[in-house]
Specification:
The complex is a heterodimer of chains A (about 250) and B (about 400).
Chain A (H helix, E strand, L loop, with lengths): L10 E10 L6 E11 L4 E5 L6 H8 L7 E6 L2 E2 L5 H11 E4 L11 H11 L7 H11 L15 H13 L5 E5 L7 H15 L5 E6 L10 E6 L2 E8 L11 E4 L2
Chain B lengths: L1 H9 L17 H12 L1 H32 L1 H4 L5 E5 L15 H6 L4 E15 L5 E9 L11 E4 L1 H4 L4 E5 L3 H4 L7 E4 L2 E9 L10 E5 H8 L8 E6 L5 H11 L3 E5 H15 L2 H30 L1 H9 L4 H36 L10 H27 L10
Parallel strand pairs in B: 3-8, 5-7
Antiparallel strand pairs in B: 1-9, 1-10, 2-3, 2-6, 2-9, 4-7, 6-7
Helix pairs in contact in B: 2-13, 3-10, 3-11, 3-13, 3-14, 11-14, 13-14
């Protein structure tokens, strides 16, 4: 059971330790992190630079393996998996949204989404329709043939979200998704991620420095010096638009 | 499907923004490779120039090798035989020694021998009618006018060569032999010869002109004995085992070499292509072309891969397997190879055609087999060139996609 006491978590991280570097340059970037991502929730992770946010995100996204600890995504343990095994978990169960969008500049919006679908094993015949649906879901049904160079930052990030959603992965991990956007586009992207998180089959984790995003979170996790130092949950009676109102929880 | 059309209407899209969902599409891995390749036209141009240069260089070198090989074996290839009986010292067709003269009768007495044809080949001093002289290679035939030699007759006939003092010469050697065509006369060993037939395109590798005539004329012109020959072509009876007959004839004619048609070909090729170093030089040129191609393609593919490293890291982060990413690079390499090959081969065929119409002395040939082999070689070359780029990509850290 999750710490919510209702739904089983889609992502469970237990006592995650990560040591980077070797010898004298060795740094303990994560010092026993426990984290659950439950379906239907948008979790915000905040922390200062160097706190271990990106390292934790890399481990939760199966890009890095932990030095110690266990990670389970959608019921699949990552213990003992090599690079290809981890890539397999990423492909099947994790969608990423990056700060710099990371769209393939030579492909159109639709092709960028189709590429993710191709990776996830969608057939050539179903890719266009699924990609179109994903772009429509982020309000870009009219920009399918646009190339990234002809799109605004907000549009590019929405394409990146459509790409992350394509193939319906269980966990969406977003790394500073609003950092490169102006206030208005940042709001739109967070509203979209919040909508995405309402799907009871999906959990969303957003790593951010941007305090304006607090109002979209269901849960807030603070990380400092490689440890989770605070967890809080939105007060149940308040709507998200009411502002950042969280109940503290144990560390 | 009805959904997309409805969706287009619902979202108020014009036709410009609507995707054609029914359109036949390339698999994304191909499309990504194609778009990566054509995205940077300068880099693509450099790659293609490298491949085209390499293909043309290799095609010309291999074409010359093929052409030279054909030249070296041109007479043998047109003189059908199951076995050849040649003097022990014989290194090639163009390096003749006389047989003793008793071989023909001995051969005819061996069961399984259906037919024998003598050839007399000898260098002679050819005196031009206008003065001066040159060396020619007399080829005397005993099966005129039904002989397959000489071929590509432009004027006269094989029958006309049988006339007393009649010879056939090739038009490309008119200047060298000091003749102008049919009816021209010259002197060999103090005897007059008359050009009664003219061929076009029968060259010799040694550049010494072949002069075809009857074996009787050849014996007279070379002071050979009445029964003497240089080579004997043996046709075996239907169903006879060639290797068995080879052994039997060798036993009967111990002072000769009895070799199959293919062995005689190989002996000629070995003599002129490898012992003289001519073939080795052509092979070295081919190797150089391949090396140049591999280096240029490897450099540009590596550079292109570096330019797209962030995209490959993103693909890796999205869960692409190493195989998927390698496939993108390999498709780029193969696409480059196909385009470069097409342009390079078109240029090579043009060069071969130019050599042919100008009757160049450089033998160069392009066969479907050679063109096919060159295609495989070009694709192989580009795939090998992709290895560096693949090594670069497999070391990508997908964590590079995150902000730091």
């Amino acid at each position: 059971m999750s710490d919510q006491g209702q739904l089983a978590p889609l992502l469970e991280a237990r006592n995650i330790v990560k040591v980077l570097g070797v010898g004298a340059g060795e740094v303990k970037a994560l010092k026993g992190v426990n984290l659950d991502l439950v379906p239907g929730e948008l979790t915000l992770m905040m922390g200062p630079s160097g706190s271990g946010k990106t390292t934790l995100l890399s481990i939760l996204g199966c890009i890095l393996g932990p030095t110690e600890g266990e990670l389970t995504i959608a019921g699949n343990s990552t213990a003992g998996l090599g690079p290809e095994g981890l890539a397999d978990i990423r492909r099947k169960h994790v969608g990423f949204v990056f700060q710099a969008y990371n769209l393939v500049p030579t492909l159109t919006a639709m092709e960028n989404v189709m590429l993710a679908l191709d990776l996830r094993g969608a057939s050539l015949g179903e890719q266009p329709e699924l990609a179109f649906e994903a772009l429509k879901a982020v309000g870009l049904g009219h920009r399918v043939n646009a190339s990234p160079s002809k799109m605004s930052g907000g549009e590019k990030q929405r394409v990146a979200i459509a790409r992350a959603l394509a193939g319906s992965p269980s966990v969406i991990l977003a790394d500073e998704p609003t950092a490169a956007l102006d206030s208005e586009n940042g709001k739109q992207v967070m509203a979209l991620l919040s909508e995405v998180a309402k799907d009871a089959r999906r959990a969303v984790l957003v790593v951010t420095h941007d305090h304006r995003t607090l109002s979209y979170a269901d849960r807030l996790v603070r990380i400092e010096d490689g440890k989770i130092v605070g967890r809080s949950r939105r007060r149940m009676k308040e709507g998200k638009s009411a502002g950042a109102a969280f109940d503290s929880a144990s560390h | 499907m009805s959904m997309p059309a409805a969706a287009v209407k619902e979202h108020g899209m014009g036709t410009t923004g609507a995707p054609d969902l029914g359109k036949r599409r390339l698999p994304m891995v191909h499309k990504l490779a194609y778009k990566n390749l054509f995205h940077d036209t300068l880099s693509l141009t450099v790659t293609l120039v490298g491949i085209v240069f390499s293909v043309v260089l290799v095609a010309v070198q291999l074409g010359m090798y093929e052409g030279t090989e054909r030249l070296v074996t041109s007479v043998i290839d047109r003189a059908p035989a199951d076995l050849w009986v040649v003097p022990l010292e014989t290194k090639s067709f163009d390096d003749p020694f006389p047989l003793t003269g008793r071989e023909k009768q001995a051969l005819l007495s061996i069961q399984g021998v259906a037919k024998v044809n003598e050839m007399l080949v000898s260098f002679v001093n050819w005196k031009r009618p206008s003065g001066g002289s040159t060396t020619a290679s007399i080829v005397g035939l005993d099966d005129l006018p039904n002989s397959p030699l000489p071929w590509d007759l432009e004027e006269g006939s094989r029958q006309s060569i049988l006339s007393p003092s009649g010879v056939a010469v090739d038009a490309v050697y008119f200047k060298e032999l000091g003749v102008k065509g049919l009816g021209s006369k010259a002197e060999v060993n103090g005897m007059q010869v008359t050009v009664t037939a003219v061929t076009r395109g029968i060259r010799s590798f040694t550049t010494v002109p072949y002069v075809f005539t009857s074996i009787a004329n050849a014996r007279a012109l070379t002071d050979a004995a009445a029964e003497q020959a240089t080579f004997i072509r043996v046709k075996l009876a239907e169903g006879t085992d060639v290797q068995e007959m080879k052994k039997r004839i060798a036993f009967r004619l111990p002072n000769t070499n009895v070799i199959t048609h293919d062995e005689f070909r190989e002996r000629n090729i070995g003599r002129w292509m490898f012992e003289t170093g001519a073939g080795v030089a052509l092979i070295a040129g081919t190797a150089l072309g391949i090396i140049v191609g591999v280096v240029i393609v490897a450099q540009t593919l590596y550079s292109s891969t570096k330019d797209h490293l962030n995209e490959f890291a993103t693909l890796r982060a999205l869960g692409a397997s190493a195989g998927y990413i390698n496939k993108v690079i390999l498709i780029q390499a193969v696409l480059s190879a196909v385009i470069g090959y097409a342009v390079g081969m078109a240029l090579s065929i043009f060069i071969v055609w130019m050599f042919k119409v100008t009757e160049s002395e450089l033998p160069i040939a392009m066969t479907p087999m050679l063109a096919g082999s060159l295609f495989i070689l070009t694709v192989g070359m580009c795939v090998i060139a992709a290895v560096g780029a693949i090594f670069k990509v497999i070391r990508i850290d997908p964590a590079a996609v995150f902000s730091r």
